[in-house]
Amino acid sequence: MIKRHFAIIADTVPHCMHGGGGITAYATARAIRDRGHDVTVIALTPCLYTGGVSEEFHVTHLEECGIRVDRIEGSFDLSRRSMWKRLAPAYTDLVPGFSMRDKVEHRLKKDRLHGVLMYHWNALAALHQIHIAPKIGLVGDPLHLPYLFRREFQRRNGERESLVGLTKRFAYKALIASRQIAVMKTLLEDCDIGGAFAAHHATMLSDLGGQKCQYFRTPTPDPLPSSFPAVKPKEFRLLHIGHLQGIATLSGIEMLADEMIPALVGNFPPNGFKIHLVGAGFETIPENLRRKLTHSSLSVRGQVSPPDREFLEAHCVIVPTPIELGIRVRILTAFSFGSCVIAHAANKCGIPELEHGHNCLLGSSG
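-> structure tokens emitted (366 positions)
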């Protein structure tokens, strides 16, 4: 085998603790390194979700695995943009990674690279029109969808929309979303290979008229052997896991509170089941939704690092996310632990390999 040198550009330092993006980048880096190639990771921002440990812990872990890590400082804070910039944004306003191109190009020229893998939109922007080696651009959620889903969630949960807020929402749909779609097409066209980790988004991005966006299955790291074996608890335990600020997780929490808990109460004897709610950010959930989750059978666990025991001790992992946004890496992680997965059918759009009654159970209601 000929040894190659690959660079992976990612928003944050890859890690295997929490967050689909960090886990995906980590699994990709490890897979390339485990096949005997050299890997350099270039992280553009600090880790958002570090699993309760310092970012240095993740850097040290990657270096112990033989993966070199470099970090490039950049400001992704767009909170002080003028109103005009908000309504008629430049590409740099939409994807701040554009502003880091010079720094990233300077760093990449230090090595003789055989390929560059860019993960998510900021990474694609940081390498836009820079062709040092063949480029593979891989993305998760489209730029314009999370905001739209979050606005609907906020309205459902009692957030009053002012005239200014209403104006901003319509301006977003009319002006900004179209600009985001244009910049996504521009970024993908600049790649030698473009791909998305969600099947329906790969189709949508291909339909924009740019180069074909391929569907790539999401890699996940294998559980550590030390995690096994695990003893199931006596009571029927369900696990819901995910950072509680992401709109996909929040939408699932809504269904858990409104439909699943009442159904469980109606079908189990008192104290006959337990739901472990794992993930940071419970205090940020809208108050009316938090009140619905104050149930004796629900245990708010917060961030658990690593969450291996939670997966292994649960009888079922529930993924009630009902919106067609991205993919749920927690489903694939649960599969890696051999967990029984019960998920909303919407998740099949991103992961078409899900088959009801074969590798999971899918439903369209709580």
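The chain has a mean pLDDT of 88.
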